[in-house]
Amino acid sequence: MAVCTLDEIAAWSQMGDDARKALMERLPDRARMQHALHTLLPEHAALERALHPLDTPPEGEGWNSAELEGLLTARPVAAAAVLAGLVPRSEGTTVLLTRRHDGLRHHGGQVSFPGGRVDAGDADAVAAALRESDEEIALKRDQVQPLGLLDPLATVSGFLVMPVVAVIDPRFVPVPNPGEVAEVFEVPLDYLMAPQNLRTVELEFKGRQRTVLEYDWAEQRIWGATAAILYNLRRRLEAAA
Question: What is the rounded distance in angstroms from the CA atom of residue 37 to the CA atom of residue 4?
Fold first, then answer.
């Protein structure tokens, strides 16, 4: 069977119907393609060294829990999961992010990864991240391949978030849920992994000064938990190098 090039796969969204049909006839079946997605990532070997295995989730209260001492409520911490999706493009790997709908009660208008609370029906954090990604941007299970886990992150809203790093089929076309997602966009991974592009910002929360992390990309402000997850990815890659 013929093999399609990365440039051909990455150009899917710009192709006409005839070109897409011709490419699809050359692709392996979808199940095989899903399990081969990691081969499109130049960073795959480094990620394999840096990430926690999918079947061995890390434990603990969150790598940043000391920073939140005295800020968390007394209620039990709720488990959540997000999908840190990497998209292999011919010009370089990108990170898929969403901007939440402005009208949402929690974190409206903020940039985030697809994800949410781990429900009782979810087998684990990976299942929750995949379910939420389908609900928010119509990312189907055969269009994504989970690779591993980052360290859990505690949030001031009372969640313990498990980030699931995954590779997304470059042919995927997001369909934002209009009630939840205002926009889907991608940022080059190299930009987000460069230390000089991350800054700290001081703000007041519950009468205390807090230091939060922040990136600027185009007209997007990437900050808070999302920036902290990207920082954790960078530090784990640096430690595994």
Answer: 12
| Opening angle at CA 170, ends 41 and 137, nearest 5 | 120
Q: Which fold has domain 6-55+62-240?
A: Nucleoside Triphosphate Pyrophosphohydrolase (3.90.79)
The shares of helix, strand and coil residues in the chain, as percent rounded to the nearest 5, are 35, 30, 35
Of 17, 143, 39, the residue nearest 83 (C-alpha): 143
Confidence tier at 21 by pLDDT (50, 70, 90): low
Closest CA to 78 of 151, 157, 136, 149: 157
Mean pLDDT, rounded, of the chain: 85
Both tokens of 240, joined, read 């595994």
Beta bridge partners of 81: 116, 162
What 3-state class would DSSP assign to 175? coil
Those residues whose C-beta lies under 8 Å from the C-beta of residue 66, and which sit 6 or more positions away, are none
pLDDT tens digits, one per residue of 117-148: 999 999 999 999 999 999 999 999 999 999 99
